[in-house]
Design a protein that fits this description.
The complex is a heterodimer.
Chain A: E1 10-12, E2 21-27, H1 31-39, E3 47-52, E4 59-63, E5 66-70, H2 72-76, E6 78-83
Antiparallel strand pairs in A: 1-6, 2-3, 2-6, 3-4, 4-5
Chain B: E1 21-27, H1 33-41, E2 45-49, E3 56-64, E4 67-73, H2 85-97, E5 101-107, H3 111-121, E6 128-133, H4 135-140, E7 144-145, H5 147-154, E8 158-160, H6 169-180, H7 198-208, H8 218-226, H9 230-239, H10 242-254, H11 258-277, E9 278-279, H12 288-296, H13 301-343, H14 349-367, H15 370-386, H16 388-401, H17 410-415, H18 420-426, H19 433-442, H20 449-463, H21 467-492, E10 502-504, H22 513-547, H23 557-564, H24 566-570, H25 576-584, H26 591-599, H27 608-615, H28 618-630, H29 635-645, H30 648-677
Helix pairs in contact in B: 3-11, 5-11, 7-8, 7-10, 13-14, 13-15, 14-22, 15-22, 18-29, 19-21, 20-21, 20-27, 20-28, 21-28, 22-26, 23-25, 25-26, 28-30, 29-30
């Protein structure tokens, strides 16, 4: 197991544990995925809370008060700055 | 508003009296748009497809104050980019048809995300009304929203409402009426692009100003170009002179990250609106959705809950549905047949036989499925409307990954347990064309109620008390084959590609009976149409083939056809009658029983089940059940596959694959059970 990221560190969303919060810094996914994420509220600058991050499978996050299910692959391509 | 947009001039209200206005209903998925549409139009609605697209088009009419309005339900979309056919349709309709009013339904409980579509729409039209729906859910979640503040901030009318309780709908119709007649004129506050890209946008705007083709607003085209919208880029490449295009192309290439600047600009605009009009819930408050999701979306408990819910749905369907089906069969159909024979007593024997055996026997047995389908789709409708199905998709995601699919593919597949036709249609929720095609290809391997009815009839005849185990075994076999076929197709044809899983998990809410009722109604009507046309026709054809040319079944054309296929059938222990039953099941799965009924000519004293049990060996019966549950789907499903894939190649591939798989499985079953039994 990798140690959980410390405060202010930039890391992939997939490494944040349940209840952790962060600010989206960069999305490195393909154009179509970026567009779909943006229309669902996931843009750089948005605050994101991890609701559920099991060891395998998709995550549930809360962004702009919307619950989103994200595949682990997608979550690995979203860079966040951890806060709190 | 931007300088190059042309303002629509309103003709005086008096000229509009009695004329018909077009109102477009826009909104993101899960905001209660369908509920509102159904509430306003009731049964005055027409469901079809958008021309040339496999996207459902709903349109209806209603009257208000003596004026007829045409309400067009645009596809539910999160934005107006060219991400999907739905989004293309929505924006093309607004740009080309210029509806008198655009009502955009937003979910008050997820206002920020919901307003994204509003941000896109106000850039296209000033005749926008915001229907602030689900006020009850927002309140329940602890939000305090001030609609008049939001209205002032947006610059367009905002109507608070709760469509599920019919609250605010009259006010909405009143506002539509006023906007359509020009009594309310708005100047929306349009979002600006993020500062660092403003000058670029301006440059693009001046570059294309003279060349933008007619109905497209030039500031909007400029914005879409900067967003990297492929459709609009193609449009401008075709319209602009080469020199202009090159200049534009250079700018666009230098700013290919502008998409996020545009999106962020919209969210900044939204942020201002929300800050003004909304009081956030108290911190630390755990919502109902969060509490339920702790179980329903749990990676382990969630699967258990899903299994439990599925079990209950099937149990309810068959416990309530089967007695009703039997009653319909024994009482209603039998009585109609009796009456028909009395009426036709004086008619020629062939006519009476055609009506009683051919038509009533065939269609009647199909229509007895109605109670089962109604119960199944009502149960699914409730789960769908409550928001549970997104949780089912979430917990099934890992399993679907095996096939290179993701959780969303589970939803259409689940519909398939009722009937494969809605399953194939239901794949429209999957964004990636590849994942959608793969889901369509495996969907026929879900055992539908018609296939299960054949099992339910034959299994007890052959296996007595073990029938339940045999039936479950067949379902599991079918699902196992589905996963295997999915893995193989994904690894070979699609080379293991994987599509992004991004899905909204809507808040839970109480089901709306009207929405569910219309959902079930739509699916039942489709079933009736199938029974009234295809199945009626084929019942008559089969009857004809079985009596022509001699009047004797054993020497009929149908028998000839079965004997011709006998060499293949014999590998599975089939005689020609079983082969014929399988062939007729291509038309409708239930036909297998009807055909067996005709071919084995149940005598007066014993029923069909007893006759079959006496004449067919158990190993053959098992092989027959295996083949029929995996066989080519019914003609209605094949036609739907053709329609949805738009390709004969894939349709034929699907049929050939299922034929091969079912025959191989049948042979293995027959040989193994012979060896075990012998």
């Amino acid at each position: 197991m990798v140690a959980p990221p410390t405060l202010d560190q930039i890391c992939p969303l997939s490494t944040l544990s349940t209840n952790a919060r962060g600010i989206v810094v960069e999305i490195t996914a393909g154009k179509d995925a970026v567009r779909r994420l943006a229309s669902l509220g996931l843009t750089p600058g948005a605050e994101i809370t991890v609701i559920q991050n099991p060891r395998y499978g998709p995550l549930i996050v809360l962004v702009r008060n919307v619950r989103l299910a994200l595949g682990r692959g997608e979550a690995q391509k979203i860079q966040v700055r951890r806060c709190e | 508003m931007s300088h190059c947009a042309t303002d629509t001039q309103n003709t005086p209200a008096s000229l509009h009296v009695k004329s018909e206005f077009t109102v477009a209903l826009a909104g993101q998925p899960n905001v209660g748009k369908s509920t509102l549409f159904n509430l306003i139009t009731g049964l005055n609605q027409h469901v079809g497809n958008w021309p040339g697209k496999t996207v459902e088009r709903k349109e209806g009419t209603y009257s208000f104050d003596g004026i007829t309005y045409r309400l067009v339900d645009l596809p539910g979309t999160y934005s107006l980019t060219a991400n999907s056919p739905e989004e293309m349709i929505a924006r093309e309709f607004i740009i080309r048809e210029q509806p008198a009013v655009i009502v955009v339904v937003v979910d008050a409980a997820v206002l920020e995300r919901s307003l994204y579509l509003v941000a896109e729409l106000v850039a296209l039209s000033s005749r926008v009304i915001v229907a602030l729906n689900m006020m009850d859910v927002a309140q329940q979640e602890g939000y305090l929203i001030e609609p008049h503040v939001l209205q002032a901030a947006l610059g367009v009318p905002v109507v608070p409402m709760t469509a599920t309780r019919n609250l605010g709908v009259r006010e909405l119709l009143q506002t539509i009426h006023q906007v359509a007649r020009g009594e309310i004129q708005s100047t929306p506050h349009v979002p600006e692009i993020r500062e660092d890209h403003q000058s670029v946008l301006e440059k693009i705007r001046t570059l294309i100003a003279e060349w933008t083709p007619a109905p497209y607003p030039c500031h909007w085209v400029a914005l879409k170009l900067l967003e990297g919208d492929q459709e609009i880029t193609r449009l401008m490449q075709a319209t602009l002179p080469p020199q202009q295009w090159h200049a534009l192309h250079e700018i666009l290439c230098a700013h290919d990250d502008a998409l996020l600047a545009v999106a962020s600009g919209r969210y900044e605009w939204i942020g201002r609106m929300v800050r003004a009009a909304v009081t956030r819930p108290r911190a630390g408050q755990i919502s109902l959705t969060a509490r339920l999701d702790a179980w329903a979306a749990h990676p382990i408990w969630g699967l258990g809950i899903l299994t439990g819910i599925l079990g209950i749905v099937f149990w309810l369907t068959f416990t309530i549905g089967t007695p009703l089906q039997d009653w319909l069969h024994d009482v209603v159909v039998a009585r109609v047949a009796e009456m028909a024979s009395l009426v036709l007593a004086a008619a020629p024997v062939w006519l009476s036989s055609l009506v009683v055996n051919g038509m009533i026997g065939g269609v009647g047995s199909v229509l007895t499925f109605l109670p089962i389908l109604i119960i199944f789709y009502t149960a699914l409708g409730i789960l769908e409307d409550m928001g549970y199905m997104a949780r089912a998709a979430y917990v099934m995601d890992s399993l679907m990954h095996l096939m290179g699919l993701h959780g969303k593919s589970f939803l259409p597949l689940f519909l398939g347990f009722g009937c494969n036709v809605p399953a194939v249609l239901g794949t429209r929720v999957i964004e990636s064309p590849r994942a959608r095609l793969l889901t369509i290809l495996v969907a026929p391997l879900i055992p539908c109620t018609a296939r299960m009815a054949v099992v339910a009839f034959l299994a007890p005849a052959f296996f007595g008390s073990a029938a339940t185990w045999v039936s479950w075994g067949l379902v599991l076999l079918s699902l196992g084959v589905l996963v295997l076929v999915g893995i193989v197709i994904n690894k070979t044809i699609f080379r293991g590609q994987r599509s992004a899983f991004i899905m909204e998990m809507p808040l839970y809410h109480l089901p709306n009976w009207r929405t569910i009722g219309l959902l079930v109604w739509g699916r039942v009507v489709a079933f009736f149409k199938k029974a009234g046309t295809v199945i009626l026709f084929i019942s008559m054809v089969i009857w004809g083939l079985s009596v022509l040319p001699t009047g004797e079944l054993n020497t009929s054309w149908l028998a000839g056809l079965g004997r011709w296929f006998e060499p293949i059938g014999s590998w599975m222990g089939f005689d020609w009658r079983l082969t014929v039953a399988l062939l007729t099941s291509f038309v409708a799965k239930e036909n297998a029983i009807a055909t067996l009924g005709v071919l084995f000519k149940a005598s007066e004293t014993e029923g069909l089940a007893e006759t079959l049990a006496a004449t067919i060996p158990v190993s053959t019966a098992l092989a027959f059940l295996v083949v029929q549950i995996l066989f080519i789907p019914c003609v209605a499903t094949v036609a739907t596959i053709r329609q949805e894939t738009g390709s004969w190649r894939w349709t034929l591939f699907s049929m050939a694959m299922l034929l091969g798989v079912s025959l191989i499985a049948g042979m293995i079953t027959f040989q193994v059970s012979q060896w075990v039994g012998g």
